[in-house]
Design brief:
The structure is a single chain. The chain is an alpha/beta fold and about 550 residues long. About 25% of the residues lie in helices and about 15% in strands. It has an 8-stranded parallel sheet with strand order 11-10-9-5-2-1-13-12, covered by helices on one side. Helix 10 packs parallel to helix 14 and helix 11 runs antiparallel to helix 12. The two termini are about 25 Å apart. The chain binds alpha-D-glucopyranose and calcium ion (CA). Alpha-D-glucopyranose binds next to loops.
């Protein structure tokens, strides 16, 4: 990778997210694992990515697929051993890939040693590692709700106390007010740094400084104090990429998370653009307000320029597949997958590709609720059925927004179970794997895979992707998303038809005759009408 002198390496990097249980099984138990990932490193190198963000592989009862950790310093046997992990770090390095660990620090599993101790008595040294309130059975300390449904408080009769959990009852919240908790966490992070990991992704980090008595979940008053302390005590001692997941981020606090002085993280992973096509709750669907989306993305580009750093993403393990969500997963699957990728990869920030996105993998529609695995979907199903919703409406919500859309096995080839496992996969494979899979895409020069490969290469070739100033064109246009990136030497034009209909377009004078860097239809970038989901990038030296 072209390392620029004045910029940290991760500004020029592309990150690939792996959801380990769905990536590659190596031993036929139907669950992806670390040896499976090692086997696929050549594929990742061929794609051209620089780092892999691994969703959690630490020891866990898997109530929330590993986001409920019971030992931060061990690997879950389902995924392999600590030696496998060390081998992954070493092997990845040979392929010029760094490994980013997922740090889940807002909560642990209720089976973590600290919590088992904490439950033993109010005077146990670990008691204050968690958030407790005295009370009476049946009368909750307040009416706060957990993200995965039900109250945020769970009664422990032995203690006559409730503990606080923002997620499932098996994910008790850690008490960050306690300096001992913070010290334990920092020591654990330093231990992983010694093992040679390349960085960390910080799970729901904006929720660590909760103050339940005041109803505060994210953006608590001490949040940035805690993050700055953690960064000083750990990350700043290495050359890492760190990314904070923050659903509650806005452009103001993002400047703190991603301050160029490195006092917190390298970058923020924020969701403003990902929550527009819903009502209050994600399950209640609303049409995408396209003009608002453009303005929002533009706002982040402009306001963070020179003073912060953003992640660029449209997918992860919590979100539905973008080609099904904002593109067309039928007739124009390839065109629209490429369109969405280009729209994103032309912007400033560090792009994240979620496994299978580079193949244009789609959402899935399993016939029955028993085919689903995600705790969030299962709890919502139960709640809404109890509340009298129609089953078909509940299933429609899951089809559109359920997290299992992103969690079906990676589609490697057209063989049984898409080449993911020789056993029975833990969740069904998307039946379209015979058509959409890595093997066939690698053979097809016009595939979504080769298109992503090219986008990644372009970013590294042209410095304007790194530091060009962003300008939104045609802000009110209801079909076209067009923008320029400009630095001292060159200008880039990214032009996207976001719809399945023709769109009228006229080429800006200064880009007439410019070089086409990439285009999802044959030939040069067009001067006139844009075809369905047509997209191109033009480059001009000054
Ligand atoms: C984050 C993770 C999600 C998990 C939650 C609780 O949002 O991405 O998968 O369920 O935190 O840890
Ligand atoms: Ca396995």
């Amino acid at each position: 990778m072209a390392e620029t002198k004045t910029q940290p390496w991760w500004k020029n990097a592309v990150v690939y997210q792996i959801y380990p249980r769905s990536f590659q099984d190596s031993n036929g138990d139907g669950i992806g694992d670390i040896p499976g990932i090692i086997r696929r490193l050549p594929y990742l190198e061929e794609l051209g990515i620089d780092a892999v963000w691994l969703s959690p592989v630490c020891r866990s009862p898997q109530d929330d697929n590993g986001y409920d950790i019971s030992d931060y310093q061990d690997i879950d046997p389902m995924f392999g051993t600590l030696e496998d992990m060390e081998q992954l770090i070493a092997e990845a390095k040979k392929h010029h890939i760094r490994i980013i660990m997922d740090l889940v620090l807002n909560h642990t599993s209720d089976e973590h040693r600290w919590f088992l101790e904490a439950k033993k008595g109010k005077d146990n040294p670990y008691h204050d590692y968690y958030v407790w309130r005295d009370g009476e059975e049946g009368t909750y300390p307040n009416d706060m709700k957990a993200t995965f449904g039900g109250p945020a408080w769970e009664w422990v009769p032995e203690l006559g106390q409730y503990y606080f959990h923002q997620f499932s009852v098996k994910q008790p919240d850690l008490n960050w007010e306690n300096p001992k908790v913070r010290r334990e966490i920092y020591d654990m992070i330093l231990w992983w740094m010694e093992k040679g990991v390349g960085g960390f992704r910080l799970d729901v980090i904006d929720q660590i400084a909760k103050e339940p008595d005041r109803g505060i979940t994210n953006n608590g008053p001490r949040l940035h104090e805690f993050i700055q302390e953690m960064s000083r005590e750990t990350f700043q001692k290495g050359d890492l990429i760190t990314v904070g997941e923050a659903w509650g981020a806005n452009t103001e606090n993002a400047k703190l998370y991603s301050a160029p002085d490195g006092s917190e993280f390298s970058m923020v992973f924020q969701f403003e653009h990902m929550v527009m096509d819903q009502k209050e709750e994600k399950w209640d669907l609303a049409p995408l307000p396209f003009v608002k989306l453009k303005k929002d993305l533009a706002k982040w580009q402009t306001e963070l320029y020179g003073v912060g750093w953003n992640s660029l993403f449209l997918n992860n393990h919590d979100l539905p597949r973008i080609v099904s969500r904002w593109g067309d997963d039928g007739k124009y699957r390839k065109e629209s997958a490429k369109m969405l990728a280009t729209m994103l990869h032309g912007m400033q920030g560090t792009p994240y590709i979620y496994q299978g996105e580079e193949l244009g993998m789609t959402n899935v529609r399993f016939p029955d609720i028993t085919d689903y695995r995600d705790i969030e979907s299962l709890n919502m199903y139960k709640e809404r059925m109890d509340a009298g919703y129609k089953e078909e409406d509940v299933m429609e919500s899951i089809y559109a927004k359920g997290r299992d859309n992103a969690r079906t096995p990676m589609q490697w080839d057209a063989s049984k179970n898409a080449g993911f496992t020789e056993g029975t996969p833990w969740i069904g494979v998307n039946p379209n794997y015979t058509e959409i899979n890595a093997e066939s895409e690698k053979k097809d020069p016009d595939s979504v895979f080769h298109y992503y490969q090219k986008l990644i290469r372009l970013r590294k070739e042209y410095p304007v992707f790194l530091d060009g100033k962003f300008e939104l064109l045609l802000p009110e246009d209801g079909q076209i998303f067009a923008y320029t990136r400009t630095d001292e030497d060159a200008a880039l034009l990214v032009c996207v038809n976001f719809t399945g209909e023709d769109a009228s377009w006229s080429m800006p004078e200064e880009f007439r005759g410019a070089r086409t860097l990439i285009h999802n239809y044959p030939g040069e970038g067009p001067e006139g009408t844009l075809r369905p989901y047509e997209v191109f990038m033009l480059y001009k030296k000054k």
